[in-house]
Specification:
The structure is a single chain. The protein has helices at about 5-35, 40, 55-70, 85-100, 105-110, 130-155, 160-165, and strands at about 115-120, 125-130. By secondary structure, the chain is mainly alpha-helical. It has a single domain (about 5-165), classed as Up-down Bundle (Four Helix Bundle (Hemerythrin (Met), subunit A)). The protein has a two-stranded antiparallel sheet. Strand 1 (about 115-120) and strand 2 (about 125-130) form a beta hairpin. The protein starts with a helix and ends with a helix.
């Protein structure tokens, strides 16, 4: 049985990007209500050697865009990753969702055997089949950064729960 790469990626990315946007809205309202400088949350980390929340959101968006683009053989949109506010992160999510909306199932499905070449932070290449790339790299990376964003906010007292994380499905 084959898997629809489109069904396994686009709706999943869109659902969790939507929930990420909602969680950021909750965090911004929490900061305002408690008179906490937004940068406290935006620069928060789970541990000193981990990326701050801003970078976690940027990476989640990057893995959604890059995952779908690489799988489909299209250019990955380049963004500067200079977001430093809740509003700028919301705009990044909006642009990422708009990019995902450009894809049809016909562009994504059928790329199970497409060779995807990664250079994840090193000069060494890793070559993967399209389906393996999506299921073993792109989606897990995406979930890691979305989950870490949620965990950063929760560990800093923002009242979000599993329902917020899951979003609308």
């Amino acid at each position: 049985m084959t898997i629809s790469l489109y069904a396994a990626s686009v709706p999943v990315f869109k659902q969790l990007l939507g929930s990420l946007s909602a969680v950021l809205t909750i965090a911004e309202a929490h900061a305002e209500a408690k008179k906490i400088e937004p940068s406290v949350f935006l620069q928060a980390r789970l541990f000193p050697d981990m990326f701050p929340l801003v970078r976690q959101v940027q990476n989640a968006a990057e893995h959604a865009r890059g995952g779908l683009a690489r799988l489909s053989g299209v250019d990955i949109p380049k963004y500067e990753n200079k977001e430093q506010s809740f509003a700028e992160l919301q705009e990044l999510i909006r642009k990422t969702l708009a990019f995902l909306d450009e894809f049809s199932p016909a562009q994504v499905d059928g790329n199970e055997e497409r060779e995807v070449v990664l250079r994840a932070g090193t000069p060494r290449e890793k070559r993967m089949r399209g389906q393996d790339f999506l299921l073993a790299f792109a989606i897990p990376q995406f979930f890691f950064h979305v989950t870490t964003t949620y965990a950063i906010l929760r560990s800093n007292g923002v009242e979000v729960g599993k329902k917020d994380y899951m979003g609308t499905y």
